[in-house]
Amino acid sequence: MAAEAGLLDRLARRVDGYRFTLRLGEKGRVASVGDGIAWVYGLPSAAAEEILRFEDGSRGMVFELQAERLGVILLDPEANVASGSLVSHTGERLEIGVGDGLLGRVVDPLGKPLDGLPPPETDGFSSLEGASPPIVARDFVNRPLYTGAKVVDTLIPIGRGQRQLIIGDLGTGKTSLALDSVVAQAGQGVKCVYVMIGQKRSEAALVIDLLRRHGALAYSTVVVGEATATPGMKYLAPFAGCAIAEGWMRRGEDTLVIYDDLTTHARAYRELSLLMHRPPGREAYPGDIFYLHARLLERSTRLSQDHGGGSLTALPLVETEEGEIAAYIPTNLISITDGQIYLDRRLFAAGILPAVDVPLSVSRIGGKAQHPRIKEEAGQMKLDYLQFLELEVFTRFGTKLEAGTEVKIRRGRLLREILKQERLNPLAASFQLAWMIAFNAGLLDGFEPQTLPDALQKIQDGLARDPLVLDAARDEWLALLNNWLAA
């Protein structure tokens, strides 16, 4: 009764305040429709990215402003828009619901459910094209984000708030590494958003099933712009995922966003731009393709404590062809991000998984976020590994080597064997430190490469019985490691 009385009171005030006045409005008409876009005449005061309403109730977003007409992305695939349909202003921008109600859900770039469940309950709305945080609102990246992969967490570390590119040819394990990173966030207090752009429905279902079986869907949201979607929906997908993660970041939480992948996104944007008659540039991409990805990835950061202290870490994926990292889109993204993890097809074919090419991989700011103990043990390891890769070339010609060189090659081969890892098997930071101390102290030198998995399993079992914190003294670690390996 109280609610009804309040509603009647508001209606009465609205009626009392109503005045007959002259109201000016604009109406446009659809000139043509096709390929998920509509050309609209009229509406001279329309703004870029404004939402328009068609007479059948469906919506569109202004994408192209021309002197006489507007290019509009249709947002409702079931829309009944035809030539001659009326169009009107809304004055709104495209937004998506955010909040914990999206955890465990699969949605499209507009926030509509794709998992057969009711629409998710949201705490508010976030703009798909929100501005990136200003410099004064940002803080240094100083906390690690563990991916669970030995080669990444030790030699190419990632910090919370970083933008780290995963790059490689088709079928080299980019998606597997990204999924490992999501699974590794269990119990880490990091909420994840996995964005799939232009992937087939079967591939999307497989990813969702893997996340569900490993318990990762409980703290994740999946945004799908599937292969059969219009170019406009594929274009909006990564911005939707970023907006969802920003909602948590503004609340002071840590988030991780996977963009799988931005090569497909760039192609969708190229197709959309050509349909809108934008002039093509290099490889027919529009001239603002760099700005497109820059404004997306610049929203990834770590906020200062005065602004909540949350973080948004981005792991964009990009595909190369025949290992050509100097192509247009890969080089654009390399220059935008804070480093790259390069996956090599030859390493993949040789069974070195994950197939990370250490010489071509770099993390420019991740070392600042690495735990001091792990950083101390990994300090010389990457340099020694790079030297080993150069020295190993000489062994192919049967060259007689000095004793010291043979020792370096043997230890390098042991390290390469240690860095191998099965997919969907993320490892804790304490284990990463344990094997590095054992390797640096020479405790693993007596093992043959084929027996190393047993030694590493002994270390893992020992940690399960006698857990140690990362800050424990090195002598304490060495004492336990000797006992575990001698067991």
Automatic annotation (TrEMBL):
Topological relation to the membrane, as annotated: Peripheral membrane protein
User: InterPro entries given for it?
Assistant: ATP_synth_asu-like_sf, ATP_synth_asu_C, ATP_synth_asu_C_sf, ATP_synth_F1_a_nt-bd_dom, ATP_synth_F1_asu, ATPase_a/bsu_AS, ATPase_F1/V1/A1_a/bsu_N, ATPase_F1/V1/A1_a/bsu_N_sf
Q: Any idea which UniProt keywords this protein has?
A: ATP synthesis, ATP-binding, Cell membrane, CF(1), Hydrogen ion transport, Ion transport, Membrane, Nucleotide-binding, Translocase, Transport
* Compartments where found: Cell membrane; Membrane
Query: What is this enzyme's EC?
Result: 7.1.2.2
The protein's annotated catalytic reaction(s) are: ATP + H2O + 4 H(+)(in) = ADP + phosphate + 5 H(+)(out)
Record domain ATP synthase alpha subunit C-terminal: where:
370-461
Site positions for Required for activity: 361
Q: Name one Pfam family in it.
A: ATP-synt_ab_C
> Known PANTHER family for this protein?
ATP SYNTHASE SUBUNIT ALPHA, MITOCHONDRIAL
Q: Which HAMAP family match?
A: ATP_synth_alpha_bact (MF_01346)
Subunit: F-type ATPases have 2 components, CF(1) - the catalytic core - and CF(0) - the membrane proton channel. CF(1) has five subunits: alpha(3), beta(3), gamma(1), delta(1), epsilon(1). CF(0) has four main subunits: a(1), b(1), b'(1) and c(9-12).
**Stated family:** Belongs to the ATPase alpha/beta chains family.
Which protein, by its recorded name, is this?
A: ATP synthase subunit alpha
Give the taxonomic lineage as stored in the record. Answer: Bacteria, Pseudomonadati, Pseudomonadota, Betaproteobacteria, Nitrosomonadales
